[in-house]
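Figure 2 data, in text form.
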Amino acid sequence: MMQHRWLNEENILRSTSEVEYHPLRPFLPPDARVLFLGSFPPPRKRWCMDFYYPNWINDHWRIQGAVFYGNRDRFVDAERKTFLLDEIIKHCNTLGIAYFDTCTAVRRLAGNASDKFLEVVEPTDVKALMNRLPRLRAVVCTGEKAASTLCQRLEIAQVPRVNFAADIPGTGVQLYRLPSSSRAYPLAFDKKVDAYRTMFDNYSR
């Protein structure tokens, strides 16, 4: 009975949730060797800048600051509670780091940023993105939703464990799974830095 009621509630949510389309263009430096693909951006109210990983309390840019410059605040504007977008773009162009997401259209079944309640309406054509990056060595995902969606799209039989890779058939590129940079992911910041550093050492340097 409980299961039946839950399914009805989910169907109501699905029918009333509007389709949301990706608000950003793919960021694809021509010499990119690493392509980060998340699931989908958080709701606009959580953005502090118009770029990927825009949530102030997400540590993605703090992790990269620590990895490449030994300073977790390298891209942080603490006074304004935002990130230094011009510096981030310069950094990504210089080091060949590209960004987009695994979904181009979704429904938020609970009205929040949780992947658990994200319904994929239109998955990204990942291979089309890859074809625009001739030096690409790794597609990198940082969450379960992104990883499972990518494996379906790229015909990878098994979702790789965190800090492991899987070959993307017929491409010479690997799918690499990192721990999430969200503070909700239960891993110490320094451990995340170590994981990201290992990935970048393997694929981007």
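Caption note: The two ends are 55 Å apart (CA to CA).
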